[in-house]
Amino acid sequence: MRLVVADTGPLNYLVLIGEADLLSNLFERVFIPQAVRDELQHAETPPSVREWIDHPPAWIEVVSIEGNTTDPDTASARRSCSRRVSALSFCSSTNETE
User: Fold this and answer.
1) Which domain holds residue 28?
2) pLDDT at residue 88 greater than cutoff 50
């Protein structure tokens, strides 16, 4: 099973150009931390992206990670979100090798 953990940027731009389904052709599941979902739902995010994440496709799985922030307005929160993506990626790769 091919899995991937996605950050905000790639999802945002793939949705904007109408190519988000490319991910489902490459991967069975795409995991995103709750913080990434929160960023994609932010008021300043383009409406098409907010609508997409409000009703994500079945191959997207939102994962809660301890210490999640719900305030994507600060640079610190965005860095924290990136750390969560990295942590989730590490956990996923560790679990696959066991």
Assistant:
1) 3-97
2) no
